[in-house]
Write a structure and sequence with these properties.
- It is an enzyme of class 1 (oxidoreductase).
- One of its GO terms (biological process) is hydrogen peroxide catabolic process.
- By secondary structure, this protein is mainly alpha-helical.
- The radius of gyration is 22 Å and the shape is globular.
Length: 336
């Protein structure tokens, strides 16, 4: 009986090892198909074409940086980096972009990708050869650099998804009221560590938020306290002045009250001072397990940028379609 059980366990372990090897092999295969010079022969100047178009858009509307960065994050987190976030709703199908969690995405991010795609396709040799997913990844890298952040190499070779449904959005995006214990498993399921989580949260050094995303922290925290005690008291009063109760939906507040248009490490310094706008921001400092990383990034911009680049690279591999999967859309907003 013992021999039979041992043999059964042995066979079970072999099957488990084969399954793990298959998963690793599939991931390695995907990573191998993504590489920096993917368009070297088909569209050798693609990066400079995209950069020029994105820079022109950025000069016209500075919120392009935050909008594009957030668009990339939402796209990758929902069902992988396949530009499905850009697809329009059609017929009886409501696309990802029209889900309530995505409605607040600024149109300048979409516009940056669409204009860059048009610029690429305007080159005869490149027409219909570069995916919208890759253009979004390149555009995101470019707006980060334009806003003062690091310039980094982007792996390319993604293909565009053909499916976009609002049903894929719930439970796939972190919300402003999430605490660290809820954020960690969400990021871990995408292969991202706590350091990656904190570095990616540093993207909140750019952009703005609507009042309803944090109003409960300054007006109705709980039955005993009106204001969240983790918020600096002076900052809380400033927020109440800028965001009165029942504020107009058009009112927006900078995520970084000091340098909202610059990609720097001020976000982490603000967390140290109780000036994280969202619960999901301030929790990174109030929890002991993440506070040391916040302190490191606050004191060392280079360390933050290094981990941010690693996190963006890893996120950019999540759920990608390569080879014969997906397509290269002629129009980023509709399937071919």
């Amino acid at each position: 009986m013992d021999r039979l059980i041992s043999r059964s366990q042995f066979l079970h372990l072999i099957l488990l090892l084969l399954l793990l090897l298959s998963i690793v092999s599939n991931k390695s295969c995907i990573n191998a198909q993504l590489h920096r010079d993917f368009y070297r022969n088909s569209c050798p100047n693609v990066e400079s074409i995209v950069r020029s178009a994105v820079e022109q858009k950025y000069r016209q509307t500075i919120v392009t940086a935050a909008a594009t960065l957030r668009l990339f994050f939402h796209d990758c987190f929902i069902q992988g980096c396949d530009a499905s976030i850009i697809l329009r709703s059609s017929g009886n199908n409501t696309a990802e972009k029209d889900h309530p969690d995505n409605i607040s995405l600024a149109g300048d991010g979409y516009d940056a990708v669409i204009k860059a795609k048009a610029a690429v396709d305007n080159v005869p040799a490149c027409k219909n050869k570069v995916s919208c997913a890759d253009i979004l990844a390149m555009a995101t890298r470019d707006v980060v650099a334009l806003a003062g952040g690091p310039h980094y190499a982007v792996e390319l070779g993604r293909r565009d998804g053909r499916v976009s449904s609002q049903n894929s959005v719930p439970n796939n995006l972190p919300h402003s009221e999430f605490h660290l214990k809820k954020l960690l498993p969400m990021f871990a399921s995408r292969g991202l560590s706590i350091r990656h989580l904190i570095a990616l949260s540093g993207a909140h050094t750019l952009g703005f938020s609507h009042c309803n995303q944090f109003s409960s922290r300054i007006y109705s925290f709980n039955s005993k306290r009106k204001v969240d005690p983790t918020i600096d008291s002076i900052y809380a009063k400033e927020l109440q002045e800028m965001c009165p109760q029942n504020a107009s939906p058009g009112v927006v507040i900078p995520l970084d009250p000091d340098t909202p248009q610059v990609f720097d490490n001020m976000y982490f310094k603000n967390l140290q001072r109780g000036k994280g706008l969202f619960t999901s921001d301030q929790t990174l400092y109030t929890k002991r397990g993440s506070r040391n990383i916040v302190n490191l990034f606050a004191s060392n911009k280079t360390a933050f940028e290094r981990v941010f680049i690693a996190a963006m690279t890893k996120l950019g591999r999540f759920g990608v379609k390569t080879g014969n999967l997906g397509e290269i859309r002629k129009d980023c907003a509709v399937v071919n």
